[in-house]
Design a protein that fits this description.
Helix content is 33%, strand content 16%. It has 472 residues and is an alpha/beta fold. The protein folds into two domains: 158 residues, Aconitase, domain 3 (2-Layer Sandwich), CATH 3.30.499; 173 residues, Aconitase, domain 3 (2-Layer Sandwich), CATH 3.30.499. The chain has a five-stranded parallel beta sheet with strand order 5-4-3-6-7, covered by helices on one side. A five-stranded parallel beta sheet has the order 17-16-15-18-19. It has a four-stranded parallel beta sheet with strand order 11-10-9-12.
Length: 472
């Protein structure tokens, strides 16, 4: 009798090299990405006189510290000498170890979690790692992708393997058609608001259901990107025709007969009927609305039509305490309509929402309108920047008074100088709204690209459906 297996089970089982008596498994890693923050692992490797074991399976991408302004100046545009040194170190380590390096001037440069899928390096059934928590993004194409620490990165660079404990599994099923103005970002914020930032701790999430299958690849990448914000080890979605079409012809994707063979293997990956998960969660996609965060955690999110909650309404003491602290930091009062919250700055970009579909959604809102606050857009990669310019999206942004910048992590984590001033509020399409995430004292409200564009136009949190002529 054949045992029904999940997508994760199939990927895990085919990558196990050996298992220790206590349960730890040695897993083969198919693809590993490094960025500027990986210098500790390279240093430890060099100290032992080692080099990267399998350089063709490792890719170096400069993204966290690269400037989004003055890019034509090259390294001279990097004002911080420490940041400049880290960018140079990445190139040096990649060259020394024979790895492919996507540096600042590379025409395929971009944010690591945008470039991987975009070039077809990310593929169904693979194990993928990176020293960045949002590596879960790559799971949108049916891969088991997760973030690692410096010591784990060193192990992978030296052996292309990693010791891991097998995580539990959770399936989050979302059925029903999404309404107008509701995107992948709204879906994942609704999920996190429902289960909490620790709701999937120790689990790998498989996102399923008709609402998930109806999402574009960009929407799926957004959902898997923020699986980590629900405490998950990783998030993934079963590959289907949408994925196969997306990968067709991409530079690192299989070609010719190899494509046909890969396709046959990928089609065996989806979860078998009757496979069991450790946890199951269900949401009705037709009931979801555009979402926005009000606090300092991704779980502190509500539909844009709601009001700022009263901490007293939270059942657990730790939740009440965190809500009180969040309201104090965000300078908000219970009962205040979310749409009454003023916005001082807006940012569209990041590995969560810097893809061409995200830029098109913003352009739809901004076309023929003018921003009333400082705002900028940083595409997820240089190829996306070129595509947006070929479609004329940059002209829509510029006409609206929005800055059109180069690719990079930008204001997501503010490591490259793209800071929000203390006390100012930012409508952000990034993935985290912790205290100081976008700059010391900065206040972050997470939302979709369309919602961020709406805030640019009005200067406050706005239900984008009112600007698109859709009913709330």
């Amino acid at each position: 009798m054949t045992i029904a297996r999940t997508l994760f089970d199939k990927i895990w089982d085919r990558h196990v090299i050996m298992t220790r008596p206590e349960g730890d498994a040695l897993i083969h890693i198919d693809r590993n990405f490094v960025h500027e923050g990986s210098f500790h692992a390279f240093g430890a490797l060099a100290k032992e006189g080692r080099q990267v074991r399998k350089p063709r399976q490792n890719f170096a991408i400069a993204d966290h510290y690269v400037p989004t302004l003055g890019r034509e100046q090259g390294l001279a545009a990097v004002a911080d000498p420490d940041a400049r040194h880290m960018i140079e170190l990445l190139e040096s380590h990649a060259k020394h170890n024979g790895m492919k390096h996507f540096g600042m001037a590379d025409p395929q440069q971009g944010i690591v979690h945008v470039v991987g899928p975009e070039l077809g390096i990310t593929q169904p059934g693979l194990t993928i790692t990176c020293g960045d928590s949002h590596t879960s993004t790559h799971g949108a194409l049916g891969a088991y992708a997760f973030g690692i620490g410096a010591s784990q990165l060193k192990q992978i660079l030296a052996t292309q393997c990693l010791w891991l404990k097998r995580p539990k599994t959770m399936r989050i099923t979302i059925d029903g058609a999404l309404g107008a103005g509701v995107s992948g970002k709204d879906v994942v914020l609704a999920i996190i608001a429902r289960i909490g930032t620790a709701g999937a701790s120790g689990h790998v999430i498989e996102f399923a259901g008709s609402a998930i299958r109806a999402l574009s690849i960009a929407g799926r990448l957004t959902v898997c990107n923020m699986a980590i914000e629900a405490g998950a080890r990783a998030g993934l979605i079963a590959p289907d025709d949408t994925v196969y079409e997306y990968l067709t012809g991409r530079p690192y994707a299989p070609q010719g007969a190899e494509w046909e063979q890969a396709l046959l293997e990928w089609q065996q990956l989806p979860t078998d009927p009757g496979a069991r998960f450790d946890q199951e969660v269900h949401l009705d996609g037709s009931q979801l609305q555009p979402m926005v965060t009000w606090g300092t955690s991704p779980e502190e999110a509500l539909a844009v039509t709601a009001t700022v909650p009263d901490p007293a309404c939270f059942g657990e003491a730790n939740q009440r305490a965190h809500a009180q602290q969040a309201l104090a930091y965000m300078d908000l009062q219970p009962g205040m309509p979310l749409t009454a919250i003023p916005i001082d700055y807006a940012f569209i970009g990041s590995c969560t929402n810097g893809r061409i579909e995200d830029l098109r959604a913003a352009a739809e809102v901004l076309r023929g309108r003018t921003t009333v606050i400082p705002a900028w857009i940083s595409p997820g990669s240089t190829p996306i920047k070129r595509q947006a310019e070929a479609e004329g999206l940059d002209q829509i942004f510029l006409a609206a008074g929005v800055e059109w910048r180069a690719s990079g992590c930008s204001s997501c984590c503010a490591m490259n100088g793209d800071l929000i001033p203390a006390g100012a509020r930012c409508a952000s399409t990034a993935n985290r709204n912790f205290e100081g995430r976008q700059g010391q004292g900065a206040r972050t409200h997470l939302m979709s690209p369309a919602m961020a564009a709406a805030a640019m136009i009005t200067g406050h949190i706005t239900d984008v459906r009112t600007l698109l002529g859709a009913s709330a």
